[in-house]
């Protein structure tokens, strides 16, 4: 990744793989700046022209499962394989500023001097699914920049954290032994969207039992001879153990998807991005609604349905 003159345009610097241009492009896209559509077009054009799509691996799981430690270990392992790595860590948002308050980059400072690694934190901005509305667009910018692998780590929010399956090519669910995570995964339905199951901190007591419970749960679900069972991998991220097996499991899922399956996932992501942006704009419109309209709803002079139709542009004036 090279630096070019600041006099160059942002798209030109981006195409020249200037990491400062990448950082600025992400900021512009995340904030919804006026030039964001042009930046996105440039990034997606670059992605279309690329000989190979980056691999997007999503990591999800409950707080304390060691996701950030696992991401850091994966960075090191992938770099040893000669892969460039981009990381998006979606953090909880401050209820006051809307900014990220966890800062997963703190855990990954050991990679800051590596030109083949770029780590960025994004605020969830209250998104219940663990991903902010702009995450998909920022992901597109990073893909267009040309990373080999992009690791998407979501905020740990338990049962709500299902959006990642609509965004990542491969969804990795990180669990811990003897913590009830396996049972919670069954109850929450997260098992249904996971492509790879990781029992992290496998040096703790109960790891083998958790693996057995996961396998038993897989057998209980409807299946036939064509069913793909998510591989179950044990890792000890703090000691860099099990990482090769984890990447092998991701590759097994990629083989299972085939080109048609991967294309379908990418189309699903586009649908999810569109839905998220529509939701975000609808929420902005609702938050900016004229207080007089709220008073009329409260007084029974009009209905919330009529106001909603008005805000969505389906009707002119509220009666």
TrEMBL record:
InterPro entries: AAA+_ATPase, GTPase/Isobutyryl-CoA_mutase, GTPase_ArgK, P-loop_NTPase
Family annotation (Pfam families): MeaB
GO-annotated molecular function: GTP binding; GTPase activity; kinase activity
Recorded coiled-coil stretches: none
Domain AAA+ ATPase: 53-277
Keywords: Chaperone, GTP-binding, Hydrolase, Kinase, Nucleotide-binding, Transferase
Domain of life per record: Bacteria
UniProt family annotation: Belongs to the SIMIBI class G3E GTPase family. ArgK/MeaB subfamily.
PANTHER family according to UniProt: LAO_AO TRANSPORT SYSTEM ATPASE (PTHR43087:SF1), LYSINE/ARGININE/ORNITHINE TRANSPORT SYSTEM KINASE (PTHR43087)
Record-given protein name: LAO/AO transport system kinase
The organism's taxonomic lineage, starting at the top: Bacteria, Thermotogati, Deinococcota, Deinococci, Deinococcales
């Amino acid at each position: 990744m090279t630096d070019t003159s600041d006099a160059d345009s942002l798209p030109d610097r981006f195409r020249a793989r200037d990491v400062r241009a990448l950082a600025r492009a992400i900021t512009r896209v995340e904030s919804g700046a006026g030039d964001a559509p042009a930046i996105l077009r440039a990034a997606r054009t670059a992605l279309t022209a690329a000989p190979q799509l980056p691999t997007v691996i999503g990591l999800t799981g409950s707080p304390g499962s060691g996701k950030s430690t696992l991401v850091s270990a994966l960075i090191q392992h992938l770099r040893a394989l000669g892969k460039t790595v981009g990381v998006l860590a979606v953090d909880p948002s401050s209820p006051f500023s809307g900014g990220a308050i966890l800062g997963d980059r703190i855990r990954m400072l050991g990679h800051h001097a590596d030109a083949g690694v770029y780590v960025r934190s994004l605020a969830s901005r209250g998104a219940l699914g663990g991903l902010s509305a702009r995450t998909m667009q920022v992901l597109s910018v990073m893909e267009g920049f040309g990373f080999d692998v992009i690791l998407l780590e979501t905020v740990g929010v338990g049962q709500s954290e299902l959006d990642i399956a609509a965004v990542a090519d491969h969804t990795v669910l990180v669990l811990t032994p003897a913590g009830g995570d396996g049972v919670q995964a069954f109850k929450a339905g997260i098992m249904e969207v996971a492509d790879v199951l990781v029992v992290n901190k496998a040096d703790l007591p109960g790891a083998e039992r958790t693996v057995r419970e996961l396998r038993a749960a897989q057998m209980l679900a409807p299946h036939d001879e064509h069913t793909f069972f998510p591989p179950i991998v044990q890792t000890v991220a703090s000691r860099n153990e099990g990482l090769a097996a984890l990447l092998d499991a991701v590759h097994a899922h990629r083989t299972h998807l085939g080109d048609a399956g991967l294309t379908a996932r990418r189309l699903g992501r586009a649908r999810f991005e569109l839905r998220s942006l529509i939701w975000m704009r609808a929420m902005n419109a609702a938050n900016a609604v004229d207080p007089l309209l709220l008073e009329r709803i409260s007084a029974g002079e009009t209905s919330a349905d009529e106001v909603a139709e008005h805000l969505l542009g389906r009707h002119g004036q509220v009666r």
